[in-house]
């Protein structure tokens, strides 16, 4: 196996935020290939289990299309208690999410899975991490909620907000990895890559 093939990295995500975060630590994937899987929670599935399961399923789906490559996949879940908040696609969803987050602490779980090429005839090696970040929002007024809805930043975002945008003005406190809330816990990703011998800058 050539060095070029051995060190080929595929990002199993359509998220431009994850691509930007990887570039922040000097990692540029050779390909970006979204998995396009069903992301619905299973019955009684808890938020951390959901995040890690989806990351694993994304990685497996994409690895099948890129033999011999490293495949990195991630999933971000925003949770209030045991409740998994959706990726808001409509204003009604976003308002409901913001209403749940307003004035209280919630958790953001990031599941990361790295599949590494093994020897011929061997299964892929899996490395994974589950990262938790706690985030507290201020109590949002009606005007603040409507202003954020009008910004459109909530579209397609887990929990109906993007911490790297205007929502940062409403975050009173954060405990843990900031990049995890954006979409990819960089410290853990770098550790996974180093652990399998993938060259980092």
Describe the structure.
The chain is of the alpha/beta class. It has helices at 3-6, 16-24, 47-63, 91-101, 142-151, 178-182, 186-195, and strands spanning 9-11, 31-32, 70-80, 83-84, 105-116, 125-137, 171-175. Strands 1, 2, 3, 4, 5, 6 and 7 form a seven-stranded mixed sheet that branches. α2 links the parallel β1 (9-11) and β2. The two termini are 22 Å apart. The relative contact order is 0.18. It is an enzyme of class 3 (hydrolase). Keywords: Cytoplasm, Hydrolase, Nucleotide metabolism, Plasmid. This is dTTP/UTP pyrophosphatase.
Summarize the structure.
The protein has 201 residues and is of the alpha/beta class. 33% of the residues lie in helices and 24% in strands.
CATH level-two architecture: Alpha-Beta Complex
State the end-to-end CA separation: 22 Å
**Count of individual helical segments:** 7
**Anisotropy-based shape:** elongated
In total, how many domains does the architecture comprise? 1
> Rounded to an integer, what's the Rg over CA atoms?
18 Å
In the CATH hierarchy, the third-tier topology is known as Maf protein
Structural class: alpha/beta
Average pLDDT, all residues: 93
CATH class: Alpha Beta
Number of strands: 7
Provide the descriptors you would attach to this structure in a database record.
201 residues; Maf protein; 7-stranded mixed sheet; 7 helices
Topology:
Blueprint: H1 3-6, E1 9-11, H2 16-24, E2 31-32, H3 47-63, E3 70-80, E4 83-84, H4 91-101, E5 105-116, E6 125-137, H5 142-151, E7 171-175, H6 178-182, H7 186-195
Parallel strand pairs: 1-2, 1-3
Antiparallel strand pairs: 3-4, 3-5, 5-6, 6-7
Function: Nucleoside triphosphate pyrophosphatase that hydrolyzes dTTP and UTP. May have a dual role in cell division arrest and in preventing the incorporation of modified nucleotides into cellular nucleic acids.
Subcellular location: Cytoplasm
Pfam families: Maf (PF02545)
């Amino acid at each position: 196996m050539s060095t070029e093939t051995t060190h080929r990295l595929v990002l199993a995500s359509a998220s431009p935020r994850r691509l930007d975060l990887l570039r922040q630590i000097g990692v540029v994937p050779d390909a970006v290939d979204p998995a396009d899987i069903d992301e619905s929670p299973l019955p009684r599935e808890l938020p951390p289990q959901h995040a890690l399961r989806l990351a694993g399923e994304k990685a497996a789906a994409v690895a099948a299309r890129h033999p011999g490559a490293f495949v990195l996949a991630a999933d971000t879940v925003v949770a209030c208690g045991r409740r998994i908040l959706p990726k808001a696609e409509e204003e009604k969803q976003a308002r409901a999410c913001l209403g749940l987050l307003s004035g209280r602490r919630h958790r953001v779980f990031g599941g990361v899975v790295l599949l590494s090429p093994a020897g011929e005839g061997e299964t892929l090696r899996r490395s994974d991490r589950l990262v938790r970040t706690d985030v507290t929002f201020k109590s949002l007024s009606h005007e603040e909620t409507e202003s954020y809805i009008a910004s459109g930043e909530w579209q397609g975002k887990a929990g109906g907000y993007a911490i790297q945008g205007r929502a940062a003005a409403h975050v009173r406190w954060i405990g843990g990895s900031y990049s995890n809330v954006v979409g990819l816990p960089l410290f853990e990703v770098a550790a996974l890559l180093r652990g399998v011998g993938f060259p980092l800058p």
